[in-house]
Amino acid sequence: MASISSSSAKKLIQIDVSADTVCPWCYVGKKNLDKAIASSGDKYTFEIKWHPYMLNPSAPKEGVIKKEFYVNKFGPRAVQMESRMTEIFKGLGMDYNTSGLKGNTLDSHRLIYFAGKQGFDKQHKLVEELCFGYFTQGKYIGDRGFLVETAKKVGVEGAAEFLEDPNNGLKEVNEELKKYSSHIGGVPHYVINGKYQLSGGQPPESFLRAFQTAAKD
């Protein structure tokens, strides 16, 4: 879906996405973006790049119980929020799973950066699999085994060795955080062709309108 076509007749739509891998709205937005791309009738050539955003940079690496985190942060609202997200995920054909741990997302962002070096197609697929595992299967985003297994699944080579050194990709992730995330108030955030901006879990129609506007330039 994020592939680049050789057809010169199609308008190139470049999408820069800022997201965090533990943000449910980021995953909802991705699914709707994918729907918009699929329904755009092969009119455009897409290039999608994922950039890091950290909702909680000081989150512990070892993780905390997800359900407890939400209750501690949101209090009684946590139950309503979970119920709403369950319905939204159900509408996308998925089960929203709040079991497992929530914690630091830095390693996942390092891996996403690394995948991007091997192709934006692979990067896009990696984000899908990481989010699917975290949000629907109770996988922990900070678990090295889960990260490496997911990378292998989408054809990213050398992930285990890359993640082994905590400095690999660190400089690049920090540079991207500064460049793409320091000026935005929340995620998901999309910039289309460097000009048109969308925020939040937008429906497919919003993306389609943005594609049409960008294609007129």
Q: What is the topological layout?
A:
Elements lengths: L10 E9 L4 H15 L5 E9 L11 E2 H9 L2 H15 L9 E2 L3 H12 L2 H17 L7 H10 L5 H6 L5 H12 L7 E4 L3 E4 L4 H12 L2
Parallel strand pairs: 1-2
Antiparallel strand pairs: 1-5, 3-4, 5-6
Summarize the structure.
The protein has 217 residues and is an alpha+beta fold. The chain has helices spanning 24-38, 66-74, 77-91, 106-117, 120-136, 144-153, 159-164, 170-181, 204-215; strands spanning 11-19, 44-52, 64-65, 101-102, 189-192, 196-199.
What is the alpha-carbon Rg in Å?
A: 17 Å
Distance between the termini: 23 Å
| Strand count | 6
Reported for the largest beta sheet, the result is: 4 strands, mixed
Beta-strand residue fraction: 5-15%
Domain DSBA-like thioredoxin: 14-211
Organism: Rehmannia glutinosa
Pfam family, one: DSBA
Protein name: DSBA-like thioredoxin domain-containing protein
Task: Give a verbal description of the structure.
This is DSBA-like thioredoxin domain-containing protein. Residues 14-211 form the DSBA-like thioredoxin domain. By secondary structure, the protein is an alpha+beta fold. The chain contains nine helices and six strands, in the order βαββααβαααααββα. It has helices at 24-38, 66-74, 77-91, 106-117, 120-136, 144-153, 159-164, 170-181, 204-215; strands at 11-19, 44-52, 64-65, 101-102, 189-192, 196-199. Helix 1 crosses helix 5, helix 1 packs across helix 9 (204-215) and helix 4 (106-117) packs antiparallel against helix 5 (120-136).
